[in-house]
Amino acid sequence: MSGSNSGGLMSSAGLVRYFENEDRNAIAIDPKTVLAFSVLFGVFVQILSLTVA
């Protein structure tokens, strides 16, 4: 019985440590910038669909 549920918590500890660690070489983009770009891109696509159709 002891072998059926062993290691679950220990295996997730590595993932938590991996996701908490920030890479200094990673590109850091502000979430507001991503949201603004997405909205502007959506508006651009809508304008293109109105002019082409």
Automatic annotation (TrEMBL):
NCBIfam families: PRK01253.1 (NF002318). One of its GO terms (biological process) is protein transport. It holds the Pfam family Sec61_beta. It is a single-pass membrane protein. The keyword Transmembrane helix applies. The chain crosses the membrane at residues 34-52. The keyword ATP-binding does not apply. It comes from the Archaea. Component of the protein translocase complex. Heterotrimer consisting of alpha (SecY), beta (SecG) and gamma (SecE) subunits. Can form oligomers of the heterotrimer. The lineage of its organism: Archaea, Methanobacteriati, Methanobacteriota, Stenosarchaea group, Halobacteria. Residues 1-30 are cytoplasmic. Belongs to the SEC61-beta family. It is found in: Cell membrane. This is Preprotein translocase subunit SecG. One of its GO terms (cellular component) is plasma membrane. Keywords: Cell membrane, Membrane, Protein transport, Translocation, Transmembrane, Transmembrane helix, Transport. InterPro entries: Preprot_translocase_SecG, SecG/Sec61-beta/Sbh. Involved in protein export. The function of the beta subunit is unknown, but it may be involved in stabilization of the trimeric complex.
